[in-house]
Amino acid sequence: MTSRQRSLPEIVDALIAAGLVDAGRRAAALDVLAADEAAVEPGAGAPASGPVPQHRWWVEVAGYVGGAMVLASVAVLLAQTWSDLSFGAQSGLLVVVSLTLAVAAGMVRGRDAEDRADPVRRRLAATLGTAAVLAASGLSALVVDRVLHDYTAWPGAVAGVVLTVGGLLAYRHAPSVIGQGVVLWGVIQTAVLVLEDLARDAFDVVPANLDVAALLLLTGLAWWWLASRGTWREDVVARVIGAMLLGLGSQWPVIDGEHREWGYALSVAVAVAALVVYQRHGHWSRSALGITLLALTVPEALIDWTDGALGGAGILLVCGLALLGAATAGLGLRRRSEEPAG
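RE: above sequence
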């Protein structure tokens, strides 16, 4: 008879076949079962029937507080002496900080299965790894600024690339919400600087707010797609980030104040697409995005087109009707999505 460890993939496959687990979340489901097995396996830590030791969260908090105090002291020291240091000294300090944090992240994470299944180790390693990536990003910006001091956008763009690539590597080593956020930060920073500063002449025919809107929409779609593929361990957080990016991108022309009609059109298109996808594949983040965009866009467009002639009461009425209509549409799609096929 095979051991439970060897049958984990079979368990997950059975759950997928039964429709209880999405196929795109197979890797995440395996991680969860492996962590549970490490927690209950006799001789692999705490007793199978005993409670989780109460001191563990104190250890984690102490690690965060201690690390924060060390980083704060280093930051204060550097802030006081940074301008007096030579380029070599500045670069050397950032190299030492980045490597030290990266090594610490590797040691905390551990190499055997028991250590890697420990959520406390994973979170601490993710924090240290993220700090190492931030230091490496600062180093890259410093070096590029020294070499290409006449091109103000290049240091930030290269730093964004380092944030993206380094963030992905750190995330693979120790997944966490903060790691996902660093990757997002790197992608947005790189793309915005490339669009706004380095490639403005090439995209001169496109209004500035529309290229930013396109960037946010594409990033949101990519985040949703990666979430559906099981790339992000924090599935719900990733889907919420994707929804927020899609909503912000579609509303960007309205927020910016120019080409507002494009914002209305994009918002309605994204809302309808989100509700249609929700009807087919579910997940509340899609319905929330669609309902929110419809509830925002209808009053915005009416107020804009009537030049504010509706008055306070009229605006409240339109907003209420739009919200009720969007909610009704969302409930109807939810009911249809939950109906059994055939």
